[in-house]
Amino acid sequence: MASSSIHNVPHWPYDAFLSFRGANTRKSFISHLYAALNGKGIYVFKDDKELERGASISPGLLKAIEDSRISIIVFSQNYASSTWCLDELVKIVQCKNKNDHQQMIFPIFYDVEPTVVRKQTGSFREAFSKHEEAYRENLEKVKNWRDALKEVANISGWELKEYRNESEFIWDIVKAISSKIPLKSETLKKLVGIDSRLEELRSLMNKGPNDDVRMIGICGMGGLGKTNLARVVYDLISHEFEGSSFLADVREKFKNKGSVISFQRQLLVEILKLEKDSIWNVGDGINILGSRLQHKKVLLVIDDVVDIKQLEYLAGKREWFGSGSRIIVTSRDEHLLKTYGMDEIYKPNELNYHDALQLFNMKAFKIQKPLEECVQLSEGVHRYAGGLPLALEVLGSFLNGRSVDQWRSTLERLQIEPPNKIMGILQISFDGLQELEKKIFLDIACFFKWKTRDYVSKILEGCGFSPVIGIEVLIEKSLLTVHENNRLWMHDLIQEMGRQIVRRQSPEEPGKRSRLWKEADVHHVLSQNTGSEVVEGIMVDDYFFRGNDVHLSAKAFSLMTNLRLLKIHNVQLPEGLEYLSNRLRLLDWHRYPLKSLPSNLQLDKTVEFKMCYSRIEELWKGIKPLNMLRIMKLSHSENLIKTPDFTKVPNLEVLDLEGCSRLREIHQSLLRHNKLILLNLKGCTSLTTLPGEIFMKSLKTLVLSGCLKLRKLPRVVGSMECLRELLLDETDIKKLPLSIELLSKLVLLNLKDCRNLETLPITVSSLKCLRTLKLSGCSKIVKFPETVISVEDLSELFLDGTSITEVPSSIELLTKLQWLNLNDCRSLVRLPSNINGLKSLKTLNLSGCFKLENVPETLGQVESLEKLDISGTAIRQPPSSIFLMKNLKELSCRGCKGSPSSASWFLRFPINLMRWSSDPVALSLPSSLSGLCSLTKLDISYCDLGEGAIPSGIGNLCSLKELYLSGNNFFTLPASIYRLSKLWKIILEDCKMLQNLPRLPASIHAISLDGCVSLETLSDILNLNEHQLPYLDLHCVDCLKLAGNYDLALSLLKEYIKNSEHNLTTADQFGSDLSWNIYFGVAIWRLWFWRNKFLFQDMTWDCATMLSEVKIKATEFQRISTTPMGMNNRRVAKWICWSPPFWPWCKLNTDGAAKKTGEASAGGLLRDHNGAWVAGFGMNIGSCSVTVAELWGLYQGLIISWQNGIRWLQVDVDSICILQLVTTPMITTNELSPLIKSIKDLISRSWCITINHVYREANFAADFLANHALSFPLGLHLFPNPPPGIIAYLQHDMYGVAYPRFVCP
């Protein structure tokens, strides 16, 4: 099949071109043939004019040939006598060959035999004799005529002499030609987004040799457009086959008696042209189809198959069909298609945002662009439909011609009751499931969407639902898919269909439904005690009841005897709790308020038990058989004192007791557990001892971090080959047991800040799989732990903060070591000369080793080294080999001033404990640095470098991006710095002798000159490109001589502001409508303001923030100054509050925060149209400006919103600067550009998004999270539920609590 058969089908103005010799056929045969073709709707070009009028064929006739799909050539006795006809014939053959045979030729031999035409005998010979005489000067033309005749005569055609009469002759011709004219697909005209689907399907159909019989399945959920896609393909390519048939709606019609025979008859009639009554039973139909179609190239579409028997009756075997045949089957069941042996299965996606909106608008407005007042409402429908064509068409047609109020009413009703037409089609797949599969589907639809497949399988396995095969069946039937990270997902309308099925169980009373997930329904059932034995699951993902003021009775769960799944939060039980179902598989009760569980509760069927932040003191007494329990989480249950006996809990895999600060006793059965994979006791600060022995053969991770009073690790009494991570950091352990050798597959051993640990046992050498060993802060370790030398696979060794004095030569045996951290080893004096044996070393940190006076020359032979830090050491002259390391990327010699006796590093200690010289020896650098061809960062700050100490060869560092030179004594810098074409940052703080700067490279973006008291001019900086200057981050605090140079300051400021029109966004441009005097005055005022903030509060801003603020305030000043006298310019009080978005939108609030110390953080939260919590986050960024922090907050908020499947998003920020940065075009780049671009890329994705400015009073919750994140470790922290402390803000937002703010009217 030709590659263009499906997609990009050529448009032919004419179906057929009729070529004939007019004199003897025009008024008889030709007129009858033309009428018959025309009667069949075939558009034919026929030249009604006399042909022999000119010497050459007319251009119009040539164009008609090119524009015709089929050329019908009627050969008659005197056809060859017409040069016009022969020219037509040559053109026809040329077009066929040029267009890859897409144009077809049908020869008709009216009163002449094919052999006469082929061999040019008889009348054709006589005609050519005359032509050769007439064209003796152009015999090539005659040859072309002969070749064309021969080629066409070899094509199978029709001979009149083989028919009894002319009418039969014409009828056969018309039938054949009609079958080759493709249908004008009316379906195609109605479809949107079909092109990409056709292209993908085409590639699958055309795989392999053209003469193969290929079977293609089209699979997907109901309403996705599978049938329409198959119909378009059929319409476009059916003419290329000898026979074709489209069997529509097989699923529905097969319910009727005799449907199989009816379909078989349809095949025989449409493909073989047999009579309808040719078969009377299914067996005969199979036999006839299997034998009669073997030599025919057919196209067969079987639509909506649900049973493999349907395929066996209609397309039994591949051998039924002739070579080149194509069988297309549409179905919702992928397993059925695979079982039948489809060559390919195509799964079309939902429509993208643009195509979906276009389709909806065509149905709702009969145009592709919606009415202005319906734009937002249209987008609401689009989000609801989720790109499903069926839903878009149904809703669009329903809303067509209705008022805006009716639109709004419809959208509100969709939340309560989806359209029956949509749900009915989607429910077909559900109705075909077995009972257990239906239960699995409803559980996932109501509770487990976006949960991992493994987790859901564990829970549902405990319910006896056989989820491994059940989930696979749901996937095969297009009801479920698996996304990244193995998470289960289903289309929103599929999920809504499942939830609607549950609602219909009891439309009025939620307590009689099997599953409850909406907060209002759960509140009603629990507070009114209306639950019943029908209820199987209650799961509320967001924070429950938005506070701790909901009190339930002790009998709240008494009637729910079949409850399997329970997940609730923040519920008070002042009367206690009498009953919980003994059939619970999942019990997740955040902040469980009681000290114990109900006495009659049986947990023998429970798979996951989770009560984090609970008040529980004791789980159970004695031994309880809990054979199905796999996950137990009680983290931060601060009243828990001891763990129970786990002897009869054989299948437990996860036990999380992190933060149980009063936990003092661990039952010995726990450390003998055979199935436990993760044991987390982090932060159990009251834990002093563990049972004496441990043997947990399935354990992979053991976390004892922060158990401050734990002094001893249990003795290992059996092989624990599964253990990969052992975290003992911040414990009071003095030594490890010799039996640690039994942890033979250990990968990570963390002993950081074990300040009483003195040595490692010799048996550590048996840990052959150990990759990372952390001994940071173990200050009592005075000797390098040579036991690790035998650990051949060790790649990371952290000895920072230990008291070792030297590194042994045997370290060369660690040939896989990549990271060696010796930072702050204050007693270290020596490295081995054979350190070059560390062939894999990438990072070596020696900073703070102030007794270390040199490193071996052989260090330069470590070719893999990328980062070397010798800051704060006594090294005065690094070995020359270091400066030849072609792979070194970062080199820091900060504070290297010579021997320990002269190092200013010692100034931190009491002066009477040491002797020190006031004349430290400066660091010595070689004249050539060109060997460091990969170096991107060089720090030689505070090395007492004098004039000329920095070699001119520094300009040869072709990859250098960051250069740190602070605290040195030079007067000038080498002019060769200008050659550093990639340099973007140079730091020269406290260079008190520096008098001027050389010309800097155009790549520079950041210069810090704080404390350069002798610096007199910045003239070279003013020569920077005018597009570059506004983005320059220039710091000149305490540059006293610069401060006195008024002309310089004025010119620098003026240049800076004048070029601000090239800054971040078009919104920041300095336009003619803004007075320069006002702009300049505001800039001076804000510079003074920022100067004072920096000096007295240590606050900093980036260039983008400052320029934007100057523009905003200057514009405000100008508006005030130009307001006519007498107008009311007083501020008025306005009440500000947070408001939820309209359905189906969600709202994202983000903010940033920065402390005086420079630490910064960001935070944000996502809520739905009811104000319910969807997600939240906090991010400790480190050191940056508040603008950068706010940008990071917006970026992370957008990422989290997208990952949560939100496609209708309102974003509120309380910074106009941020709003401008991300909503207006960027002219050039600056230090914020990468982050801003990332945000804009997110905004441009296929979703509906608005970004608005709000006052801070409407953003308190985000402000809380941003400030709260300052207390977190560096990095991003996600909050699936609201963190402590934010509930009050959320309640205020929910209840519309407003705050006064004075604003301009």
Structure description:
Keywords: Hydrolase. The structure is a single chain. Among the domains are: 14-180, Rossmann fold, CATH 3.40.50.10140; 186-346, P-loop containing nucleotide triphosphate hydrolases (Rossmann fold, 3-Layer(aba) Sandwich); 353-416; 423-503, Orthogonal Bundle (Arc Repressor Mutant, subunit A), CATH 1.10.10.10; 699-800, Ribonuclease Inhibitor (Leucine-rich repeat, LRR (right-handed beta-alpha superhelix), Alpha-Beta Horseshoe), CATH 3.80.10.10; 1132-1303, Ribonuclease H-like superfamily/Ribonuclease H (Nucleotidyltransferase, domain 5). Mean pLDDT is 82; it is low at 1-9, 49-55, 543-548, 900-919, 1060-1072 and 1125-1129. Helix 21 (435-448) crosses helix 23. It has 1305 residues and is α/β, with parallel strands linked by helices. The two termini are 71 Å apart. Helix content is 30%, strand content 14%. The strands form seven sheets. The chain has a 22-stranded parallel beta sheet. Strands 42-41-38-39-40-43 form a six-stranded mixed beta sheet, with helices on both faces. It has a five-stranded parallel beta sheet with strand order 2-1-3-4-5, sandwiched between helices. It has 35 helices and 44 strands. It is globular.
**Name of the level-1 CATH class of the domain at 1132-1303:** Alpha Beta
Q: Can you tell me the residue ranges where pLDDT is under 50 for at least 5 consecutive residues?
A: 1-9, 49-55, 543-548, 900-919, 1060-1072, 1125-1129
Shape: globular
Q: Given the structure, what is the number of helices?
A: 35
